[in-house]
Amino acid sequence: MEPYTLSELMVVAAAREIRDGDIVFVGMRLPLLAYVVAKSSHAPRAVGVFENGVLRSTPARELLFTMSDGPNITGALSCFSMLECMALLQQGRVSLGFLGAAEVDRHGNLNSTEVDNHKGGTVRLPGSGGASDIAALSQRYVALLNHDKARLPEKVHYITSPGYGPWRQNGRLQQGGPAAIITTKAVLRFSSEGEAYLASCHPGVTVEDVLANTGWPLAVAPRVKKTPVPNKRELRVIRSYDPEHFWTK
Amino acid sequence: MPKKSTAQDEKLCSLEEAIGRLVPDGASVALGLQLESMIPFAAGHEIIRQGKRDLTLVGPISDILFDQMIGAGAVRKVVAAWVGNVMMGSAYNFRRAVEEGIPHPLEMVDHSNFTVALGLHAAALGVPFLPTYTAGGSDLIGRNPDLVEFEAPFTGETMRAVRALHPDVAVIQAQRADKYGNTHLWGNLGVAADAARAARHVIVVAEEIVDPKVIASDPNRTVIPGFLVEAVAEVPFGAHPSPVQGYYNRDNNYYSEYHRQTKTPQDFGSWLDRWVRGVKDRQGYLEQLGAERVEGLKVRKRALAARTDFGH
Fold it and tell me: Positive or negative, the Cα torsion across B155, B161, B167, B172?
């Protein structure tokens, strides 16, 4: 087996969430690479949506640092406005969105606005961007973040992007919610009641380790799986796209 | 509407004059409307140099320009979905202003990208608000007075109303325009078209001024008709370090250098002296950047669109 980094494992876990034919709000960082991996293997017909107004049916030919970089425009399927991308989302046409966050809680609510500085004040984070929209309106979403107790509190400090809650009981938001949380230790999934549970541990991580680093009594699947490791081909795709390991350090 | 300009007026002027005339202290200014591309850095720097105060900055996301204007003390309020350094994460001046009131207290009105786009679109449509499903379940509701829940007519369901956003000024960075302000844009358009219609005054900053015949040859690309525009300035490389499709690439190193060089107010002061206060205009900035670096950012491989026949 070829050695891999934790980031590469997370990229491949994210890629597996993309189904063939999905309309995916891609985002940057690890999900960008996940889209490239998925397109090259099991999801060749997936279409990427970028909230600046770009649709792509093929990955950009060079590594992107932002979604508005030149290579993401050249050869795009379509370039239009942010409102038109968001319209696709609100109509329910976007099957999957990827998000990052500073905090996630037991119902999959995400915070990227502000966190406690533990001195009676707050640390201001950049804010929602499109995250709140993607969480509310995509058919399902997947969040990626570092796994430690401070970042997985029972209740997030501020709900930037809604997970499961009363707002999912009826109306338009009924058809969405988090499908998975991919952390640096594990993959969490959600029960039909909208409660997170431990679905798989990354290689070398124990269930006890995950529970000790989660800020609430995390439910555990009857049979916790091992998160699949990246194969040679997937690693080749990731490394040829990001040879300097900018996003997978 | 206060617009008095017409399609026949010539609007060419220097960026210095455009900012001096159309951006008073206390104005609300929309900029960064094509997200990480075509960010009007030259215009933002000119606003800083002219010592403007108490501005409200409006935009979907801001990739370090809002941070610079906040650190320079020009800003009282931000209406946006995201403020930071896209490649590197947080931006220090924004954090210092919100967390510690340095150099001034900053009022932050949090939006999502969709609600910013809807607010500008409502203004562009000439209506006071637009309904949406987004922001349901989010703490944006309750914190942002311009998002309120209401019961929708016809269906009775709970929706959110987004109040129309009317910036005093929109600064639109563009590839090319003519002297009348008719403006061609291509690539990702973000919220630029709606912002130009929502704002009371529009400044266009173009990479090049071209003959009106060039603009008229391709009317689908005329995203902003000249009668909406009050001033057009020709500023090559005016968006650096952000990219302009067909002209130059993103200067990624500049963003990581900015991240490293602005960790304290003192460091940011030195940064500002070097890149903004210590230069007279964009030409001075480009000299600071150096010819080699400028040359290295230019488009390496052309990708021309197929010819389009507008004949009849």
Answer: negative
